[in-house]
Amino acid sequence: MALPKLAPVQPAHDKLRALGIVALNGMFDDMDALGVLRYAISDVLPDDLAIVSSFGADSAVLLHLVAQVDPSMPVYFLETGKHFRETLDYVETLKKHLGLINVHAIRPAVADVKRFDPNGDLWETDPDSCCHIRKTEPLEPITEQFGGWVTGRKRFQTKERGVLPHFELTSDDRIKVNPLAYFTDADVNQYKIDHGLPEHPLFAKGYKSIGCAPCTSVVAEGEDPRAGRWRGLNKKECGIHFDFNGAIASPMTAATRHTLWKNGAFIADPFHEWTEGSDPATASYTHVPLAVFLANKAAFLANPHPLGLLVSPGESIEDVEADVGRFASIAIKFPGFTDGRGYSTARLLSQRYQYANEIRAIGDVLQDQIPLMRRCGFTAFVVTHEPTRQALIEDRLPEVALFYQPVGTAEVPVGTRPFLRRVH
């Protein structure tokens, strides 16, 4: 019996279309990648489907399937400007080997790179924003031209992809096709062997999942294949795949993926908690407890990697006054809403010590506190309280207009003669 053909893309979300997607996912065997792709191209979205490929370690498998079904199908490669030289060479290798005749490179807007990443190091401080300007923004106008697109994602790769289906319906009624959704890492490697596919030049060197060079590292024996992507960061996706069908997988938004609020948005946090047994000489992107720093001061000061400092209530920031400039971030802990000792620490940092890097609040951070924290010098907030998250997203924090205890020189105290006030 012929499988049903889905209706064309509609401007509004179509429940019947969503049901059709659910039905499609029950009609194919888990491992029938070729059947899924063939049907998607010929019956679901004929002449209205494109491939997005990273040309990474596993890309040859999906592209081999494409070559069998339709080698003229549009294939888009996100040329971020940060790829390994080997990846760019691999694009040409696969094009020639598989006979792909419609491969296009998508590049970020020059103006965006110049404005947001003039030094080329945004990946180090804000990887989500780097991915946004180099991947998400350039890809969006391309995908808007098609009713759907094909990806090489697989369930085993991340927890977020653990319920990935063959077919997804996005929030704007486009269709994502994932022919390899049920493939394991072993399945992928065996497929490459069975079909004699060229290997990515870096695969044999230990790179099992390959993206942009600054955010990709070698994977150790026994590690998850994607462990080398954004290693040490609270980040598993580049951002172009966050629109899962809510009927099949949990919807994900920028606000719910991250807890660090900085510069007007929730972003990926490059820092992680200090763990006992970490080596002070090699630690990187971790908030070192103040007592641990003092006990291993020489090693931390000689450490070339970015580090943070964690200050808990009762600890004195004066103990590290001479070394605050060593830290890219200083996190101040608020164990409870009523504990105000952290405010004094922030004021000392921002006003007395002229500390110019990130001062973040962690712990019991609520919306009523944030305007006061900002006045004292806090520039980032780790927020898990849902009402506070929503208040930040909707820009409706309580305003503070009157100052009985002014901060700095700009605020005018109420009921006094400000010209008599001395700044200490």
From TrEMBL:
Alphabetized UniProt keyword annotations: Cytoplasm, Iron, Iron-sulfur, Metal-binding, Oxidoreductase
Cofactor: how and how many bound: Binds 1 [4Fe-4S] cluster per subunit.
GO molecular function (one): 4 iron, 4 sulfur cluster binding
Major location category of this protein: cytoplasm
Positions of the Phosphoadenosine phosphosulphate reductase domain: 49-217
Cellular component terms per the entry's GO annotation: cytoplasm
Localization in the cell: Cytoplasm
Cofactor(s) the record lists: [4Fe-4S] cluster
Protein name as catalogued: Adenosine 5'-phosphosulfate reductase
Organism: Devosia ginsengisoli
